[in-house]
């Protein structure tokens, strides 16, 4: 029945606008919500607030190691494209508070060498006005190790190869990185890390019209339907991430590259290549729906994380108390807003199976995700590697939150001696919010593409 309606719609509006968006409307699968409500919520309420927050010092400086070797194959480490370059910060550009408070909890070795006394001296040197309570919290933060809980490989922040990058100065946009190398990355993510047997072929990509019989696609989707909701979700998250990145690249395409100007902007034909239902044999609209799905998952993780950020001892610490307080309030405001969005997932269907099964599933998803984050070290273009790492880490953090609901709710409301059962590092927090910022921007960009395509009719 649904199919008939879609086909009818399709004939009625055979326009390019329709070929991208007509199937991206109405109810979203696995969720009690619809596209239109979500667009309004994001574009009018959440997006502007989040943009402001992401410009703050706490969120704009991301510490990352872009020089790890690819663990799976020999990668070209330089793609030679100037737009792939990432300019790291010089040390004095990063606020002192950030440099010291990221004082590391990840390298066991470093923690052994620094005894507590040294650590507190180090922290104390930043801001002697820190309350004892905060100092305690920062210390337990430094020592906490949750390797077994992590969904991503976290870069060793003490490594001399890790550097701060100013995300505002290194925006995600079209770099010219594509072709076989980029394809290999996505292909190994989908083929080797999405729980998919090799015998099931993934419906491909524009330009490969061989699969036009549609039988491969049918086999694939019936396989996907047979998966448990979480594994299906996993595939859709990866597809959503892929879609989001492609929306950005089409929205910030290098349109003009002459000796006197370089101009980035919307490239409608690039967008169509990736999302038009005809040009992609029906895959494009599915990808866009997966983007909405990803948005909802991350939104839900933000909503669930509220008790963690509400803890009194939690600070967005840069060393400037007044600003830090203001930004914490902005963050809480955004999380409250996320909580207020009425139409989340059916609580009983996702991440909520019986306990033993859930633990197994959590482990499966965690390992697959961990591996995907390592694949990011194989991305040849540094700019893409930076944003790829940030976005997979952000999504990994979102999953960690969703799978830790009980621990988060059990967090003590006052900080005490007892070691908290749930922690997020600064790097995880920065990636969580920035990754969501990218998805939120993608949803906002879809609005632009909708109107650009409507004009073209
Ligand atoms: C991790 O990814 C690589 C590269 O795609 C793949 O060869 C390997 O089998 C994966 N390992 C696991 C444990 O999934
Ligand atoms: C837009 O993208 C297409 C590829 O999809 C490219 O051929 C075209 O030159 C681009 N347009 C502009 C104005 O850069």
From TrEMBL:
Instruction: Give the originating organism.
Output: Kryptolebias marmoratus (Mangrove killifish)
Q: Which residues cross the membrane?
A: none
- Which residues are recorded as binding FAD? 173, 175, 186, 239, 242, 274
Gene Ontology terms, MF aspect:
FAD binding; protein-disulfide reductase activity; thiol oxidase activity
Q: State its location(s).
A: Endoplasmic reticulum membrane
List the active-site residues: 381 (nucleophile), 384
Q: List the disulfide bonds.
A: 79-84, 381-384
**Pfam families linked:** ERO1
Q: What protein name applies here?
A: ERO1-like protein alpha
Entry keyword Oxidoreductase? yes
Task: Print the organism lineage.
Answer: Eukaryota, Metazoa, Chordata, Craniata, Vertebrata
Membrane topology per the record? Peripheral membrane protein
* CC annotations in GO: endoplasmic reticulum membrane
From the UniProt annotation, give the residues forming the signal peptide. 1-18
Keywords associated with the record: Disulfide bond, Electron transport, Endoplasmic reticulum, FAD, Flavoprotein, Glycoprotein, Membrane, Oxidoreductase, Redox-active center, Signal, Transport
The answer, when asked if Ligase is one of the entry's keywords, is no
């Amino acid at each position: 029945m649904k199919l008939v309606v879609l086909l009818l719609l399709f004939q009625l509006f055979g326009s390019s606008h329709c070929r991208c968006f007509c199937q991206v409307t109405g109810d979203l699968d696995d969720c009690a919500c619809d596209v239109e409500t979500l667009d309004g919520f994001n574009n009018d309420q959440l997006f502007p607030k989040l943009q402001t927050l992401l410009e703050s010092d706490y969120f704009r400086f991301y510490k990352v190691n872009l020089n790890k070797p690819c663990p799976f194959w020999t990668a070209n480490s330089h793609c030679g494209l100037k737009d792939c370059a990432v300019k790291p910060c010089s040390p004095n550009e990063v606020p002192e508070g950030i440099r010291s408070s990221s004082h590391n909890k990840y390298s066991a070795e470093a923690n052994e060498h620094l005894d507590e006394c040294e650590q507190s001296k180090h922290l104390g040197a930043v801001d002697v006005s820190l309350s004892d309570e905060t100092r305690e919290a920062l210390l337990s933060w430094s020592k906490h190790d949750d390797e077994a809980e992590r969904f991503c490989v976290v870069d060793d922040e003490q490594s001399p190869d890790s550097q701060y990058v100013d995300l505002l100065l290194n925006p995600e946009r079209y770099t010219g990185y594509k072709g076989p190398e980029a394809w290999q990355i996505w292909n190994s993510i989908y083929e080797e890390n999405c729980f998919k047997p090799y015998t099931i072929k993934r419906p491909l990509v524009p330009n490969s019209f061989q699969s036009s019989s549609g039988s491969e696609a049918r086999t694939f989707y019936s396989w996907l339907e047979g998966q448990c909701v979480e594994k299906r979700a996993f595939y859709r998250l990866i597809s959503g991430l892929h879609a989001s990145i492609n929306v950005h690249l089409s929205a910030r395409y290098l349109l003009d590259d002459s000796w006197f100007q370089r101009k980035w902007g919307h490239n409608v034909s690039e967008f169509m290549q990736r999302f038009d239902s005809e040009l992609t044999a029906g895959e494009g609209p599915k990808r866009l729906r997966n983007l909405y799905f990803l948005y909802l998952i991350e939104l839900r993780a933000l909503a669930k994380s509220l008790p963690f950020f509400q803890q009194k001892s939690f600070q967005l610490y840069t060393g400037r108390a007044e600003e830090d307080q203001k930004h914490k309030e902005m963050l809480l405001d955004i999380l409250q807003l996320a909580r207020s969005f009425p139409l989340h997932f059916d609580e009983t269907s996702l991440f909520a199976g019986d306990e033993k099964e859930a633990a197994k599933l959590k482990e499966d998803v965690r390992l697959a995700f961990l591996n995907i984050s390592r694949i990011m070290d194989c991305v040849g273009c540094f700019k893409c590697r930076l944003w790829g790492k940030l976005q997979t880490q952000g999504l990994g953090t979102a999953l960690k939150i969703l799978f830790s609901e009980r621990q988060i709710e059990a967090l003590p409301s006052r900080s005490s001696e007892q070691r908290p059962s749930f922690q997020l590092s600064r790097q995880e927090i920065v990636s969580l919010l920035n990754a969501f910022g990218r998805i939120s921007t993608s949803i906002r960009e879809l609005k632009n593409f909708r109107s650009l395509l409507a004009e073209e009719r």
